[in-house]
Each structure stands twice: as structure tokens, then as C-alpha cells.
Predict the structure.
Amino acid sequence: MLDITTLVEIDSLDLPLPIYKSKKIANALHDELGSFGIYVGLTREHVEQIQTYSLDLSDTALQESTTDYKRFGKGDYAERYTKKHRIQFVLVHEETGDVASMIWYGPEALPEGLEFTVAVTQKEKSRQWYTSAYRTYGKYRGVRITTAFSAYILDLYKKSHPKNPMSLAVQKANKPGIKLYTKLGFITIAQDNKENEYIMQLI
């Protein structure tokens, strides 16, 4: 269980922060693993850890369900950060400095060519959507931190972007991911058959 205490309201910050700048916004206490901090923005150390995780070919769960090897491991982080305008959050274990989990969101239209599985009006499609992604790394999987951390960040999103729908893309074979996203309040609204993904929307 992760008990989270807010330190800074994100509405008081000008987001996204400049590259490699980070601000602690909450403390989190796990009943077995101890203290964590929740930060908005990534330091160079955070980025380097995430790049290392992304290049770890032994992490089959990450490699099979994401494109992080190319996107974070081999890609140019600075260039991507400048272009994408993502707001990034990390859950960091205070004692070790490990990045345990990361979430980001940012403005992005729904992909073209989707096969919708629920009724979505053209007006709804043309709104400013935000896309999002969720990662938990290595030994921090399965220890009851991901759901609480994700729910906390999604609550921040709802408060700061009440009129902007949020989506995510998940590989159809990623059953654990689909289970988590459903628990967090996402529903499947479309299939992206080109990428073999479901598109889910936060309700």
C-alpha cells in the first residue's frame, strides 16, 4: 500500500518544467519498501536510469509491450522533450534513488484510421485530447505501488484538465496493462489495427 501526501499543488507550477528540471510534489510511504518521493519533471539522473531500463533486453515485459527501446533507449531525449510537450512524473525510492515508476501525459490527437468500438462523435474526436503512458520498472513491479501512484497522477490530471479527454494506447496482448488501466477508469473505445493496439479513454 502506498500512502501519498501532497506537498505542492501542480496548478502553482508552470508545466512542463524546463528540461532536466524536477520538483518534488508529494511524499509516499510504502508499508514494506519505505519512503518514496513523487516528482514532476525528470533530472538527468532520472533520464539516465530510464534509458538504462529501456535498453535492458532481459526485461521482456517492457520490450514486448512498449517501444521504449527505440523511444527512450536509442532516441534523443532532449529533442523529443522539446517537441512533445510531455508532463512527466516519477516515483523515486528515497533511500536508493531508484526510479520505480514513471507516468507522462501531453496533448496529442487521436490516431488516424481507428476502428471505433463505441460511439464517438466527430465533435468529441476533434477536441484537444491528451495521451498518456505508464511504466513500472524491475523489482518495483508487483509490490502494490503502480495503482496508487497512477491514480494519484490521474486525479491531478482531472483537476487541471477537466475539459480534455485522456487516452492511452496499449498492445492487445498486454493483459496486465489492460487490467490496470481498466481498474484506473479507462475503457476501450477503439482498435488501432495497424499498431495492434487498443485505444482506451479515461472516463
Q: What stands out?
A: The radius of gyration is 16 Å. The domain at 2-202 is CATH 3.40.630.30 (Aminopeptidase). The chain has a mean pLDDT of 95.
